[in-house]
Design goal:
This protein is mainly beta and about 425 residues long. Helices cover about 10% and strands about 30% of the residues.
């Protein structure tokens, strides 16, 4: 049994290591005995730190596509480098950013959250008071509605997976169910909406259906086990699982219970979907089922013909991912990928499938289906249905062209 196992492992290293997913060739050497002692094992290492950070050898893994509007330093976005990560959880320091007027420096001792409007008694909370309430933890993705907007363009972009699709991240969010506070304030049973407003200088604000607020909405205080980072809403943010990202208002300072939508500037001048016929869709809250292959992808090419693992991410704002299929021939045939467990509702689900590349040019695609039966559409069908005027809610199938030299590029196919 041992000899075949050694043979299998040796062959696996040759195929998956030396022919791995990196653009540079891996070095393969026959096993030596005894194993060489490297210099870092010959002397003690560095001491402990008050707050850990990534290895210096991973310093290239950074937020991607950072861009601010002209004349500003904080009104813009940065993206998660999807192709450099693995697993369900996004490190907090690599979670994408989207700000409308930079990141405010908020003193938690002075911050207040007001709940008012159609309530029996208005309530004003300190952060310390919020931290005394019962909390729950859930793993959910957050996706900007403008994610993948470049894919509406007439020509495929020359960007990495993270630069094109990295306005999505997934974290463990811990906080107080909003329902508890609305019940304590005595929200009017006839009130169908609420207004959520942030404490940034843009006063980012959105109307939220009361049904969502009373369902799974959170006042998030922690992210991935630690207090929220400033760029993710410190000291408290609204979190609406599955809904477009800007509705999970950061730096939350006010909730007003209302009978109708408030129609704020952020839901009239922005975050509407202009269709091909000139009509605009409003209140298109849930992010639809979507997937993207992250390896191989642009910048993460192939080193030559051989056995590879195709891996990627899938998610849906309407539920859990039920299936991901991968095509290695441009959509001619499809086969099921393995989903990494646990598969959670409204959370990123990694997927993987083995692939033996023969070295010839081809096109890779992934297609996700969620547990409502919704299937990720082909780009041609998506554009035909919605037009190319919008910049929000793009979720069509992503195609990567693999060239004979192993380079990977965007393609519309």
């Amino acid at each position: 049994m041992d000899l075949p196992r050694r043979s299998f492992l040796k062959r696996s290293v040759a195929l998956l290591g030396a022919g791995g997913l990196g653009s540079a060739s891996a070095v393969r050497a026959e096993a030596q005995e005894p194993l060489e002692t490297p210099p870092w094992t010959k002397s003690p290492g560095t001491g402990m730190s008050e707050y850990g950070g990534p290895s210096k050898h991973e310093g290239h893994v950074k937020r991607a596509g950072i861009g601010s509007r002209p004349g500003t330093t904080g009104s813009g976005a940065s993206r998660t480098p999807l192709e450099a990560l693995d697993g369900m959880i996004t490190p907090s320091g690599l979670h994408f950013e989207r700000h409308h007027s930079g990141v405010p420096d908020i003193d938690p001792a002075r911050h207040r959250l007001l709940i008012h409007g159609m309530v029996r008694r208005p309530l004003l909370f300190t952060v310390e008071a919020l931290l005394r309430y019962p909390r729950v933890s859930r793993i959910h993705f957050l996706e900007c509605s403008g994610n993948s907007a470049v894919m509406y363009g007439a020509t495929p972009p020359t960007q990495t997976a993270g630069q094109a699709h990295g306005l999505v991240s997934c974290s463990e969010w811990t906080g107080v169910p909003l329902r508890l506070l609305l019940e304590e304030a005595g929200a009017d049973p006839g009130a169908a909406w609420l207004l959520a407003e942030g404490a940034d200088s843009a006063a980012m604000s959105r109307s939220v259906p009361m049904a969502k607020a009373m369902d799974d909405a959170l006042l998030a205080l922690f992210q991935n086990g630690e207090r929220l980072r400033p760029e993710n809403g410190y000291p408290v943010r609204l979190f609406l699982p599955g809904y477009e990202g800007n509705m999970s208002v950061k730096w939350l300072r006010r909730i007003k219970v209302t009978a109708t939508p408030t129609m704020t500037k952020d839901e009239t001048s922005r975050y509407t979907d202009l269709q091909a016929d000139g009509k605009a869709l409003m209140f298109t809250y849930p992010m639809e089922v979507k997937s993207v292959i992250t390896r191989p992808s642009p910048g993460v090419g192939l080193a030559g013909a051989g056995l590879y693992e195709i891996s990627g991410l899938a998610w849906s704002g309407n539920g859990a991912v039920a299936r991901v299929e991968v095509s290695t021939d441009g959509g001619g045939t499809w086969r099921a990928a393995a989903l990494t467990t646990p598969v959670l509702p409204r959370a990123i689900t990694p997927f993987r499938v083995a692939w033996k590349w023969d070295g010839r040019p081809t096109v890779l695609k992934s297609r996700a289906t969620d547990d409502t039966g919704a299937i990720q559409p082909e780009r041609e069908r998506f554009i035909a249905d919605h037009g190319a005027n919008a910049i929000f809610h793009y979720h069509a199938i992503q195609a990567w062209a693999v060239q004979a030299n192993g380079e990977v590029k965007h393609v519309y196919a």
